[in-house]
Amino acid sequence: MNRTTTSSIITITDLTKDFGETRALRAVNLTVTRGEVVVLLGLSGSGKSTLLRHIDGLEMPTEGDVTVLGQSVRSLRPTALRSLRGRVAMIFQQFELVPSLTVVENVLTGALARVRGPRLGLSTWPKNLKQEALTHLDRVGLLHRAYNRADQLSGGQQQRVAIARALMQNPEVLLADEPVASLDPESSDVVMNLIREIAAERGLTVVCSLHQVDLALGWSDRIVGLRHGEVVLDTPTTGLSRDRAMEIYGHVSVSTSEFAAIESELSVAGAVGAGS
Amino acid sequence: MTATAVDTHPEDARQAEVRRPRISTNKIIASILLVAMTGFAIWSLTRIDFSPHNFQLSVQNLQKTIAQMDPISFPSTPDLVYLISVTLGVVIAGTVVAAVISIPVAYLAASNTTPARWTRIIGRAIGVITRAVPDVILAMAVSLMFALGATWPGVIAIGFHSIGMISKLFADAVEQIDEGPRIAIRAAGGSKPQEFWSGVFPQVFPSWVATALHRFDINLRGSVILGYAGVGGLGYRMNLDFQRFPEGFGPALGIAIVIFLLCVVTEIIASTIRVMLLGATPTRRTLGETMMRRLRRGSRPRDVVADTLAQADLTVEKAMHRPWSRGRISTTAWAWVGVLVVIGGFVMSRLDPKQITWKYVWSTMQSFWPPSLGSYDVGTYVTAIEQTLQIAFAAALLTFVFSLIFGPLAARNVAPNRWVRNVSRVFLVIFRGVPELVLAIVLIIITGLGPEAGVLALAFGGIGLLGKLIADSFEEVNAGPEQAVRATGAGRLQVFSSATLPQGLPSLLGNTLYLLDTNIRSATVLGIVGAGGIGYYLTLAAGLTATHPIVTAIIAMVIVMVLVVEGLSNYLRRVFK
């Protein structure tokens, strides 16, 4: 890859993805360097989730290529793909914990790539991994809930368990797909801060999709805007103070530029998100 | 939502024109099919001889038998304990074997776990074939491989036959899981087996246990007929007693009563395990569930606080030990009860490898191929299948009519008052409690009636099932429309016909078709005890190695028959959803 630099962790080249007749992504190019915290902004259906799923090797490109940690996902054999997924952690909008398992068992599922064969029940896990899982739970402040069933926790707590599960992978990259879209504002802050802190502690590269502009501005190093599967904005967040951003909104909202279009769509998305 | 014609807008007429949906071709075909099936059921019912004369004859038979038989008696206590333990053991062992085999079968059959299209077909095919082979026929057919009186045929037959239902319901549960957690495990680098055991199985475990327990209940009810295949236990003893005409009928009825009581007791135990182990809400579906519901009324839900660790000075080291909260103690204890029951079942089933006659194993298996019609002509089989279908359809119709009376009356939102509802519920529970095969055997043998007794027995047991399902589905309808109709000033019957019934119709249809499906399988088995139909020919052919090719041919016919009815049912369900 000619565009790959030594510090680049994710390199996406002319990525196009079709689901049947629908084109979810069109010729997306994106390079993310080590330690960067990137936010993908866009409406639902704009291709944010699909893009994230490609980075974790959960989807294969229709055209183009996705290189993560120096490996092209297309060329990987199943075992290598699984070990790559192990190095890239992902957290989801709906947390996706197994409801009937305990919290600590859910965290341990993050270590499945590190063990051989299936695991069922807490006693089937080695002691050191269990200890590690509890340490991560302690980090997210939920050690005392280790033996509750996952579905006994509130949404915000479940998302923190999901973060602990991600930590259990000892990841180099952390992907987050609308991590706070199902949470109340207070829990949202807790979760977003936690992700940012952990990213700093571990020097993680983070790609996070969001639809709230305000949240993205205060949080990320860089913002990538997606619309109808195309990258329509890619700019560093530094120097983009909230006032500046609002100014840009005000300035472009009267014009017909693409940014205005996203901005209006984003505010619609925010309203829809708040309503649902 | 449904467009109710309350619009008084001037454009009313035009809107009505726009909104009226075109009746699809599928709806027309399905309606014709439904009318044809109802017509066949009515015709079947008229063919069954319920004339006063025939009825009088059977009452005379009944009186004569009762006059001549020994008084109803029970085996001596040690005998009774032995018989019950063998029956329970065979049923438990068979059901457990089937439940375990059902996991890989369901893995193949579920669309979201199966590795490829063709593996899914294999999984589904295993389910269909195992369900179509009646357990008693299999028991008869394999009995040659084992020493006389061995319990192997019973365990094998139950284990084989039950795979069909358990794997189907389990695969359905697997298809209905939340895919999210599984994707999360895949995203973390989990392999396919890890995805299944960490992401899928914990979600479907309760349904797996519940299905196995449900199947255990069905198997116990059906186990009496295994006695006709020489499998030891209560059914065998009952069969022996019935053969001593007419004195033996008293002791045989005694065994029937024991089986009935055994069904009630084990059902209560099974419900207790289900509720205590899985924390499931009792559903009132059966006697045991009703009892559990009463017992647990007012008891607190599982304690969340007890599993939470004290936060003060909590360290990772301290958190390594999971506290023995009340919930954990109870779950662990009931899990051990479950394990002990399973082990006890295998012990009681008295399976002994020495009883396998190895030299006959291969030749017996070979004897089923190639299939052949034997000395009968095709017409004989067609008539026999027709008779089996008649029994099933006639019984379904009777059940349907009576369930439509009892079912709604047992539904909270339809019954005029609590009293009527409770009485109806109790009726349904009693109907359901009587094992229909036992009832059928008793009716057929004592009254001398053939298909008539079969129809009555199936219809009787069916009311308990269908009535209950109707009551539940009516209670589960959306209460909104009911309130809306009530708010317009409609009476009780009007609310029922305008709001409750229209919403409950799809599940009413689905449940009736399900009943028809189980009736066809039961009607096949009833042939064995003398109700006629295809089961009769199966019984004749299963006993001898020389006629085993006929068994294969008849099984193939039964599979086709079951598949056709199942296909029609699925089609109807889809169209009238």
Automatic annotation (TrEMBL), chain A:
<dbReference type="GO" id="GO:0016020">
    <property type="term" value="C:membrane"/>
</dbReference>
<dbReference type="InterPro" id="IPR050086">
    <property type="entry name" value="MetN_ABC_transporter-like"/>
</dbReference>
<dbReference type="InterPro" id="IPR003439">
    <property type="entry name" value="ABC_transporter-like_ATP-bd"/>
</dbReference>
<protein>
    <submittedName>
        <fullName>Phosphate-import ATP-binding protein PhnC</fullName>
    </submittedName>
</protein>
<keyword id="KW-0472">Membrane</keyword>
<feature type="domain" description="ABC transporter">
    <location>
        <begin position="10"/>
        <end position="253"/>
    </location>
</feature>
<dbReference type="GO" id="GO:0016887">
    <property type="term" value="F:ATP hydrolysis activity"/>
</dbReference>
<keyword id="KW-0813">Transport</keyword>
<dbReference type="GO" id="GO:0015416">
    <property type="term" value="F:ABC-type phosphonate transporter activity"/>
</dbReference>
<dbReference type="InterPro" id="IPR012693">
    <property type="entry name" value="ABC_transpr_PhnC"/>
</dbReference>
<keyword id="KW-0547">Nucleotide-binding</keyword>
<dbReference type="InterPro" id="IPR017871">
    <property type="entry name" value="ABC_transporter-like_CS"/>
</dbReference>
<keyword id="KW-0067">ATP-binding</keyword>
<dbReference type="Pfam" id="PF00005">
    <property type="entry name" value="ABC_tran"/>
</dbReference>
<keyword id="KW-1003">Cell membrane</keyword>
<dbReference type="InterPro" id="IPR027417">
    <property type="entry name" value="P-loop_NTPase"/>
</dbReference>
<keyword id="KW-1278">Translocase</keyword>
<dbReference type="GO" id="GO:0005524">
    <property type="term" value="F:ATP binding"/>
</dbReference>
<dbReference type="InterPro" id="IPR003593">
    <property type="entry name" value="AAA+_ATPase"/>
</dbReference>
UniProtKB/TrEMBL annotation, chain B:
<comment type="similarity">
    <text>Belongs to the binding-protein-dependent transport system permease family.</text>
</comment>
<feature type="domain" description="ABC transmembrane type-1">
    <location>
        <begin position="84"/>
        <end position="270"/>
    </location>
</feature>
<protein>
    <submittedName>
        <fullName>Phosphate-import permease protein PhnE</fullName>
    </submittedName>
</protein>
<feature type="transmembrane region" description="Helical">
    <location>
        <begin position="391"/>
        <end position="411"/>
    </location>
</feature>
<dbReference type="InterPro" id="IPR005769">
    <property type="entry name" value="PhnE/PtxC"/>
</dbReference>
<dbReference type="Pfam" id="PF00528">
    <property type="entry name" value="BPD_transp_1"/>
</dbReference>
<keyword id="KW-0813">Transport</keyword>
<dbReference type="GO" id="GO:0005886">
    <property type="term" value="C:plasma membrane"/>
</dbReference>
<feature type="transmembrane region" description="Helical">
    <location>
        <begin position="550"/>
        <end position="572"/>
    </location>
</feature>
<dbReference type="GO" id="GO:0015416">
    <property type="term" value="F:ABC-type phosphonate transporter activity"/>
</dbReference>
<keyword id="KW-1133">Transmembrane helix</keyword>
<feature type="transmembrane region" description="Helical">
    <location>
        <begin position="523"/>
        <end position="544"/>
    </location>
</feature>
<feature type="transmembrane region" description="Helical">
    <location>
        <begin position="423"/>
        <end position="447"/>
    </location>
</feature>
<keyword id="KW-0472">Membrane</keyword>
<feature type="transmembrane region" description="Helical">
    <location>
        <begin position="453"/>
        <end position="471"/>
    </location>
</feature>
<feature type="transmembrane region" description="Helical">
    <location>
        <begin position="329"/>
        <end position="348"/>
    </location>
</feature>
<dbReference type="InterPro" id="IPR000515">
    <property type="entry name" value="MetI-like"/>
</dbReference>
<keyword id="KW-0812">Transmembrane</keyword>
<keyword id="KW-1003">Cell membrane</keyword>
<feature type="transmembrane region" description="Helical">
    <location>
        <begin position="80"/>
        <end position="109"/>
    </location>
</feature>
<feature type="domain" description="ABC transmembrane type-1">
    <location>
        <begin position="385"/>
        <end position="569"/>
    </location>
</feature>
<feature type="transmembrane region" description="Helical">
    <location>
        <begin position="28"/>
        <end position="46"/>
    </location>
</feature>
